[in-house]
Please model this.
Amino acid sequence: MESRRSPYIKHLFVCVNRRDAGVTCCSHGGGEAIKEKLKAFVKANGLKGKVRVSSSGCMDLCALGPNVMVEPDHRWYSRVTLEEVDRIIEEHLAPLIPGSPVPPSPVRAFLFDLGNVLVRFDHMAAARRIAAHAGMGPEELCRIFFESPLVVDHDEGRISTEEFHQSLKRQIGLRLGYEEFLSVWNDIFTPDPESQALVERLIPSYPCYLISNTNRPHFEHARRICPLLDRLHGRVLSYEVGHLKPHPAIYRRALELAKVPPPEILYVDDREDLIEAGRRLGFQAHRFEGADLLRTELERRGAISTARSERAG
Ligand code: FES
Model:
Protein backbone atom coordinates (compact mmCIF):
# COMPACT_ATOMS: atom_id res chain seq x y z
CA MET A 1 0.00 0.00 0.00
CA GLU A 2 1.14 3.53 -0.74
CA SER A 3 -0.08 6.61 1.05
CA ARG A 4 0.09 10.20 -0.16
CA ARG A 5 -1.57 13.53 0.45
CA SER A 6 -4.66 14.19 -1.65
CA PRO A 7 -3.91 16.71 -4.41
CA TYR A 8 -7.39 18.23 -4.11
CA ILE A 9 -8.22 21.28 -2.01
CA LYS A 10 -11.89 20.25 -2.03
CA HIS A 11 -13.41 16.88 -2.79
CA LEU A 12 -17.18 16.76 -3.28
CA PHE A 13 -19.06 13.47 -3.16
CA VAL A 14 -22.49 13.42 -4.76
CA CYS A 15 -24.68 10.42 -4.06
CA VAL A 16 -26.06 9.08 -7.33
CA ASN A 17 -27.26 5.76 -5.92
CA ARG A 18 -30.40 4.51 -7.62
CA ARG A 19 -33.00 2.40 -5.84
CA ASP A 20 -36.06 0.66 -7.19
CA ALA A 21 -38.83 2.76 -8.73
CA GLY A 22 -40.98 4.28 -6.03
CA VAL A 23 -38.24 4.05 -3.37
CA THR A 24 -36.75 7.39 -2.28
CA CYS A 25 -33.11 7.75 -3.31
CA CYS A 26 -30.62 10.39 -4.40
CA SER A 27 -30.80 9.41 -8.03
CA HIS A 28 -34.56 9.87 -8.24
CA GLY A 29 -34.11 13.26 -6.57
CA GLY A 30 -31.69 14.50 -9.23
CA GLY A 31 -28.26 13.43 -7.94
CA GLU A 32 -26.80 13.10 -11.46
CA ALA A 33 -27.90 16.60 -12.48
CA ILE A 34 -26.41 18.03 -9.27
CA LYS A 35 -23.13 16.30 -9.95
CA GLU A 36 -23.05 17.55 -13.54
CA LYS A 37 -23.74 21.14 -12.43
CA LEU A 38 -20.86 21.00 -9.94
CA LYS A 39 -18.53 19.46 -12.53
CA ALA A 40 -19.47 22.13 -15.07
CA PHE A 41 -18.65 24.88 -12.57
CA VAL A 42 -15.28 23.31 -11.77
CA LYS A 43 -14.39 23.06 -15.45
CA ALA A 44 -15.63 26.54 -16.39
CA ASN A 45 -13.68 28.18 -13.58
CA GLY A 46 -10.36 26.43 -14.06
CA LEU A 47 -10.62 24.48 -10.82
CA LYS A 48 -9.74 21.08 -12.29
CA GLY A 49 -6.83 19.69 -10.33
CA LYS A 50 -7.90 21.71 -7.26
CA VAL A 51 -11.42 20.37 -6.90
CA ARG A 52 -12.76 16.90 -7.57
CA VAL A 53 -16.44 16.01 -7.92
CA SER A 54 -17.03 12.28 -7.48
CA SER A 55 -20.07 10.04 -7.69
CA SER A 56 -20.78 8.38 -4.39
CA GLY A 57 -22.68 5.26 -3.47
CA CYS A 58 -25.42 5.30 -0.86
CA MET A 59 -24.60 7.46 2.18
CA ASP A 60 -27.32 5.82 4.24
CA LEU A 61 -29.46 8.94 4.31
CA CYS A 62 -31.70 7.98 1.39
CA ALA A 63 -34.85 9.59 2.78
CA LEU A 64 -32.99 12.93 2.94
CA GLY A 65 -31.54 12.71 -0.58
CA PRO A 66 -30.07 14.03 -2.72
CA ASN A 67 -27.00 14.16 -0.50
CA VAL A 68 -23.72 15.98 -1.13
CA MET A 69 -20.67 15.76 1.11
CA VAL A 70 -17.82 18.31 0.99
CA GLU A 71 -14.39 17.39 2.29
CA PRO A 72 -12.20 18.42 4.04
CA ASP A 73 -14.89 20.82 5.28
CA HIS A 74 -16.85 17.95 6.91
CA ARG A 75 -20.06 19.45 5.52
CA TRP A 76 -23.01 17.37 4.51
CA TYR A 77 -25.92 18.78 2.49
CA SER A 78 -29.22 16.94 2.26
CA ARG A 79 -32.39 17.50 0.22
CA VAL A 80 -30.28 19.47 -2.26
CA THR A 81 -32.12 20.98 -5.22
CA LEU A 82 -30.46 21.99 -8.46
CA GLU A 83 -30.94 25.67 -7.53
CA GLU A 84 -29.38 25.15 -4.10
CA VAL A 85 -26.19 23.86 -5.69
CA ASP A 86 -25.35 27.56 -6.12
CA ARG A 87 -25.09 27.88 -2.34
CA ILE A 88 -22.64 24.99 -2.15
CA ILE A 89 -20.64 26.59 -4.94
CA GLU A 90 -20.68 29.98 -3.26
CA GLU A 91 -19.59 28.62 0.10
CA HIS A 92 -16.97 26.06 -0.90
CA LEU A 93 -15.80 26.60 -4.47
CA ALA A 94 -16.10 30.28 -5.34
CA PRO A 95 -13.46 31.26 -2.73
CA LEU A 96 -10.95 29.14 -4.63
CA ILE A 97 -11.20 31.32 -7.73
CA PRO A 98 -8.55 34.06 -7.63
CA GLY A 99 -10.22 37.47 -7.82
CA SER A 100 -13.62 36.19 -6.66
CA PRO A 101 -15.67 38.78 -4.76
CA VAL A 102 -14.23 40.04 -1.49
CA PRO A 103 -16.49 39.36 1.53
CA PRO A 104 -18.28 42.42 2.84
CA SER A 105 -16.30 42.71 6.05
CA PRO A 106 -12.75 43.94 5.41
CA VAL A 107 -9.80 42.50 7.30
CA ARG A 108 -7.63 44.88 9.32
CA ALA A 109 -5.49 42.36 11.22
CA PHE A 110 -4.44 38.71 11.09
CA LEU A 111 -4.16 36.11 13.82
CA PHE A 112 -2.03 33.07 13.02
CA ASP A 113 -1.69 29.75 14.79
CA LEU A 114 1.87 28.40 15.03
CA GLY A 115 1.95 24.58 14.79
CA ASN A 116 1.11 23.22 11.35
CA VAL A 117 0.50 26.73 10.07
CA LEU A 118 3.80 28.65 10.33
CA VAL A 119 5.91 25.63 11.30
CA ARG A 120 5.17 21.96 10.79
CA PHE A 121 5.37 19.65 13.76
CA ASP A 122 5.12 15.97 14.49
CA HIS A 123 4.29 14.86 18.05
CA MET A 124 4.77 11.21 17.11
CA ALA A 125 8.39 11.86 16.09
CA ALA A 126 9.17 13.13 19.60
CA ALA A 127 7.13 10.32 21.16
CA ARG A 128 9.13 7.74 19.22
CA ARG A 129 12.43 9.20 20.39
CA ILE A 130 11.32 9.72 23.99
CA ALA A 131 9.87 6.19 24.04
CA ALA A 132 13.31 4.84 23.21
CA HIS A 133 14.47 6.31 26.54
CA ALA A 134 11.41 5.39 28.58
CA GLY A 135 10.84 1.70 28.07
CA MET A 136 7.39 1.98 26.51
CA GLY A 137 5.93 2.22 23.00
CA PRO A 138 5.29 5.60 21.34
CA GLU A 139 1.51 4.98 21.14
CA GLU A 140 1.33 4.30 24.87
CA LEU A 141 3.46 7.36 25.51
CA CYS A 142 1.19 9.53 23.36
CA ARG A 143 -1.84 8.21 25.25
CA ILE A 144 -0.23 9.18 28.56
CA PHE A 145 0.63 12.60 27.14
CA PHE A 146 -2.87 13.25 25.90
CA GLU A 147 -4.85 11.65 28.72
CA SER A 148 -2.92 12.95 31.70
CA PRO A 149 -3.20 16.64 32.65
CA LEU A 150 0.60 16.92 32.54
CA VAL A 151 0.89 18.40 29.05
CA VAL A 152 -2.03 20.76 29.67
CA ASP A 153 -0.46 21.94 32.94
CA HIS A 154 2.79 22.60 31.11
CA ASP A 155 1.15 24.32 28.14
CA GLU A 156 -0.94 26.49 30.47
CA GLY A 157 2.14 27.46 32.46
CA ARG A 158 1.03 25.90 35.77
CA ILE A 159 4.20 23.82 35.95
CA SER A 160 7.68 24.73 34.80
CA THR A 161 9.53 22.70 32.19
CA GLU A 162 11.82 21.40 34.97
CA GLU A 163 8.75 20.11 36.86
CA PHE A 164 7.38 18.67 33.63
CA HIS A 165 10.63 16.80 33.09
CA GLN A 166 10.67 15.50 36.68
CA SER A 167 7.05 14.31 36.34
CA LEU A 168 7.89 12.48 33.12
CA LYS A 169 10.78 10.75 34.88
CA ARG A 170 8.35 9.53 37.54
CA GLN A 171 5.38 8.71 35.31
CA ILE A 172 7.03 7.08 32.31
CA GLY A 173 10.43 6.15 33.68
CA LEU A 174 12.19 8.68 31.44
CA ARG A 175 15.92 8.11 31.55
CA LEU A 176 17.00 11.37 29.84
CA GLY A 177 18.66 14.22 31.71
CA TYR A 178 17.06 17.65 31.42
CA GLU A 179 19.20 18.98 28.55
CA GLU A 180 18.96 15.74 26.57
CA PHE A 181 15.21 15.69 27.12
CA LEU A 182 14.88 19.26 25.85
CA SER A 183 16.71 18.49 22.65
CA VAL A 184 14.41 15.50 21.95
CA TRP A 185 11.29 17.32 23.13
CA ASN A 186 11.98 20.32 20.89
CA ASP A 187 12.99 18.45 17.80
CA ILE A 188 9.49 18.21 16.36
CA PHE A 189 9.38 21.37 14.26
CA THR A 190 10.37 22.07 10.69
CA PRO A 191 9.85 25.45 9.04
CA ASP A 192 7.06 25.92 6.49
CA PRO A 193 8.74 28.40 4.11
CA GLU A 194 5.66 28.79 1.90
CA SER A 195 3.25 29.89 4.61
CA GLN A 196 5.94 32.04 6.22
CA ALA A 197 6.51 33.79 2.89
CA LEU A 198 2.82 34.68 2.74
CA VAL A 199 2.93 36.21 6.23
CA GLU A 200 6.07 38.14 5.22
CA ARG A 201 4.00 39.73 2.46
CA LEU A 202 1.27 40.75 4.90
CA ILE A 203 3.50 42.28 7.57
CA PRO A 204 4.19 45.63 5.84
CA SER A 205 0.47 46.32 5.43
CA TYR A 206 -1.32 44.53 8.28
CA PRO A 207 -0.76 43.87 11.97
CA CYS A 208 -0.12 40.13 12.26
CA TYR A 209 -0.31 38.32 15.61
CA LEU A 210 0.49 34.83 16.81
CA ILE A 211 -1.91 32.78 18.92
CA SER A 212 -0.57 29.41 20.01
CA ASN A 213 -1.11 26.50 22.36
CA THR A 214 2.48 25.91 23.31
CA ASN A 215 5.05 25.80 26.09
CA ARG A 216 8.21 27.79 26.70
CA PRO A 217 10.82 25.36 25.24
CA HIS A 218 8.74 24.68 22.15
CA PHE A 219 8.15 28.35 21.52
CA GLU A 220 11.79 29.31 22.08
CA HIS A 221 12.85 26.57 19.70
CA ALA A 222 10.27 27.65 17.11
CA ARG A 223 11.70 31.20 17.30
CA ARG A 224 15.14 29.85 16.46
CA ILE A 225 13.97 28.05 13.32
CA CYS A 226 11.41 30.69 12.33
CA PRO A 227 12.85 34.21 12.85
CA LEU A 228 9.62 35.58 11.36
CA LEU A 229 8.00 35.02 14.76
CA ASP A 230 9.96 37.93 16.20
CA ARG A 231 8.78 40.26 13.46
CA LEU A 232 5.09 39.68 14.11
CA HIS A 233 3.28 42.54 15.81
CA GLY A 234 2.55 40.56 18.96
CA ARG A 235 1.85 37.11 20.36
CA VAL A 236 -0.50 35.35 22.72
CA LEU A 237 0.91 32.10 24.08
CA SER A 238 -1.04 29.63 26.19
CA TYR A 239 1.73 29.15 28.74
CA GLU A 240 1.88 32.92 29.34
CA VAL A 241 -1.88 33.49 29.32
CA GLY A 242 -2.76 30.41 31.39
CA HIS A 243 -5.38 29.14 28.95
CA LEU A 244 -5.33 26.91 25.89
CA LYS A 245 -7.41 27.54 22.81
CA PRO A 246 -10.40 27.23 22.56
CA HIS A 247 -10.79 28.96 25.96
CA PRO A 248 -12.28 32.40 25.25
CA ALA A 249 -9.72 34.06 27.54
CA ILE A 250 -6.85 33.44 25.14
CA TYR A 251 -8.82 34.95 22.25
CA ARG A 252 -9.80 37.91 24.44
CA ARG A 253 -6.11 38.55 25.11
CA ALA A 254 -5.50 38.59 21.35
CA LEU A 255 -8.28 41.15 20.93
CA GLU A 256 -6.78 43.38 23.64
CA LEU A 257 -3.50 43.24 21.75
CA ALA A 258 -4.91 43.85 18.29
CA LYS A 259 -7.43 46.55 19.34
CA VAL A 260 -9.53 45.54 16.34
CA PRO A 261 -13.04 44.06 16.60
CA PRO A 262 -13.31 40.30 15.85
CA PRO A 263 -15.21 40.68 12.56
CA GLU A 264 -12.24 42.63 11.16
CA ILE A 265 -9.69 39.97 12.09
CA LEU A 266 -8.92 36.91 9.98
CA TYR A 267 -7.98 34.01 12.25
CA VAL A 268 -5.96 31.20 10.60
CA ASP A 269 -5.69 27.82 12.32
CA ASP A 270 -5.39 24.23 11.16
CA ARG A 271 -7.87 22.72 13.65
CA GLU A 272 -11.54 22.76 12.78
CA ASP A 273 -12.68 22.90 16.43
CA LEU A 274 -10.54 25.99 17.01
CA ILE A 275 -11.78 27.62 13.82
CA GLU A 276 -15.35 27.03 15.02
CA ALA A 277 -14.50 28.54 18.42
CA GLY A 278 -13.06 31.60 16.68
CA ARG A 279 -16.15 31.99 14.51
CA ARG A 280 -18.38 31.79 17.59
CA LEU A 281 -16.45 34.74 19.00
CA GLY A 282 -17.05 36.70 15.81
CA PHE A 283 -13.73 36.32 13.99
CA GLN A 284 -13.54 35.74 10.30
CA ALA A 285 -11.69 32.45 10.00
CA HIS A 286 -9.74 30.40 7.52
CA ARG A 287 -8.88 26.78 8.17
CA PHE A 288 -5.28 26.23 7.11
CA GLU A 289 -5.01 23.35 4.68
CA GLY A 290 -1.79 24.33 2.98
CA ALA A 291 -0.07 27.45 1.72
CA ASP A 292 -1.71 27.27 -1.72
CA LEU A 293 -5.19 27.61 -0.30
CA LEU A 294 -4.10 30.34 2.12
CA ARG A 295 -2.56 32.27 -0.78
CA THR A 296 -5.83 31.98 -2.72
CA GLU A 297 -7.76 33.22 0.32
CA LEU A 298 -5.45 36.20 0.82
CA GLU A 299 -5.60 37.07 -2.88
CA ARG A 300 -9.38 36.81 -2.87
CA ARG A 301 -9.52 39.31 -0.03
CA GLY A 302 -7.07 41.60 -1.77
CA ALA A 303 -4.65 41.30 1.18
CA ILE A 304 -1.85 40.27 -1.18
CA SER A 305 -1.66 40.82 -4.90
CA THR A 306 -2.30 37.92 -7.25
CA ALA A 307 0.57 36.21 -9.06
CA ARG A 308 -0.83 37.63 -12.33
CA SER A 309 -0.88 41.27 -11.18
CA GLU A 310 2.61 40.85 -9.72
CA ARG A 311 3.87 39.65 -13.08
CA ALA A 312 2.10 42.52 -14.82
CA GLY A 313 3.71 44.99 -12.37
S1 FES B 1 -29.36 6.76 -2.07
FE1 FES B 1 -28.20 8.51 -1.54
S2 FES B 1 -27.95 8.26 0.55
FE2 FES B 1 -28.90 6.41 -0.02
